Amino acid sequence: MKPNLLFHTLEQIESTNNYAMGKIHEGLAVHGMAFFTSNQTSGKGQRGKYWEGKPGENIALSIVLTPNHDFVEFPFLFNAWIALICRSYLSKLINENVKIKWPNDIIINDRKAGGILIENKFRGNYWCWSVVGVGINVNQLEFSGEAKYPISLKQISGKTYNLKDLARGLHTEILNAYQNVGQLNAGEIWKEYLQNLYKIGQDVFLKIKNEIIETTIVGVNETGQLMTKDIIERTLNFGEVEWIVS
Fold first, then answer.
1. What is the pTM of this model?
2. Are residues 189 and 227 in the same domain?
3. Torsion of CA 83, 89, 93, 99, to 10 degrees
4. Phi/psi zone of residue 134: left (φ > 0), alpha (ψ -120 to 50 degrees), beta?
5. Hey, which of 27, 90, 170, 227 would disulfide with 218, CB 3.0 to 4.6 Å?
């Protein structure tokens, strides 16, 4: 089915990811089905965090995919691959150096331009569906004090973007890439991911168990853990790390 026929616009919704997951539970999901809104009232970020966005100024997009068998052994490889597609798409739009901040943020000029939340549906041990949620700050110029160092595409380029066209373009980009996923080499994905990993090889401050440490980002392993090194080598999981901006 053509991408345009799979693309659905929602005027307002609490969460596009929840809506997409609902279609899965109802047995109405189709591979490549996408749900877009510019007015998401209760958007979700990683670990249950709230995703802020002014109505009519940003993109919330969720795409339903059937996972390719190449990703089953290392599910985080799927996350890395999606992040690379989003990074590439945005870098072509604004001609800037776009980075991927572990675990799920899209960073431009050291500020957060977007985020990715992938939720999976299993039947027993069988990975049957993924909902790929992408939020992008597009035309918003002012953010609340609760948001941590956000930036929008318009703040960078000065341009006003057509939100639906932007969302359609990203949807098409992901589906086109998915058609060729069998040709991808896992090693090449990791190489490109690490090349575009935010702050790799640099010292950062992280908060771990109420302690702030200075450590060097070494990379991310195949299970999706952040690897750092200071006086000891560390392997860190989602949810136990907070980035501290110096």
1. 0.92
2. no
3. 30
4. beta
5. 227
